[in-house]
Amino acid sequence: QVQLVESGGGLVQPGGSLRLSCAASRVIFSINAMGWYRQAPGKPRELVATITSSNNTNYADFVKGRFTISRDNAKNTVYLQMNNLKTEDTAVYSCNARVTSLAVHYDYWGQGTQVTVSS
């Protein structure tokens, strides 16, 4: 079991920045991968960025060059630094943790944090 708590969302103007945090209830080096997903109203959830236990990262094309995912193992926390935010980045951002055991994936989710980009 992994509990995840996100923070850092809010209202920001276009071009602004926010940093999201996801605090895990267990040591994250034991988690195979963590990531951020987002869901805008009326749209399906989509992957934003992931980071593995070996620090390999993956980004959706629409955030490359603007968002950075990172992890702090000492704090059991994963971050998403979001720069040059656009109105289309408005969504609920959720943290995910995937634990793989005996080839079975177990996904855990946080409650989500709202990001609103508006002037």
Summarize the structure.
The chain is built from no helices and eleven strands. The protein is mostly beta strands and 119 residues long. The radius of gyration is 14 Å and the shape is globular.
Model description:
The protein has 119 residues and is mainly β. It is built from no helices and 11 strands. The strands form 2 sheets. Strands 2, 4, 5, 6, 9, 10 and 11 form a 7-stranded mixed beta sheet that branches. A 4-stranded antiparallel beta sheet has the order 1-3-8-7, with no helix packed on it. The chain is globular. 30% of the residues are buried.
* Largest sheet composition: 7 strands, mixed
N→C terminal distance = 40 Å
Strands, total number? 11
| Helix and strand pattern | EEEEEEEEEEE
State the helix count.
0
pLDDT averaged residue by residue: 93
Structural class: mainly beta
Give the overall shape: globular
Give the uncertain stretches in residue-range form.
Answer: none
Question: Which percent bin holds the helix content?
Answer: under 10%
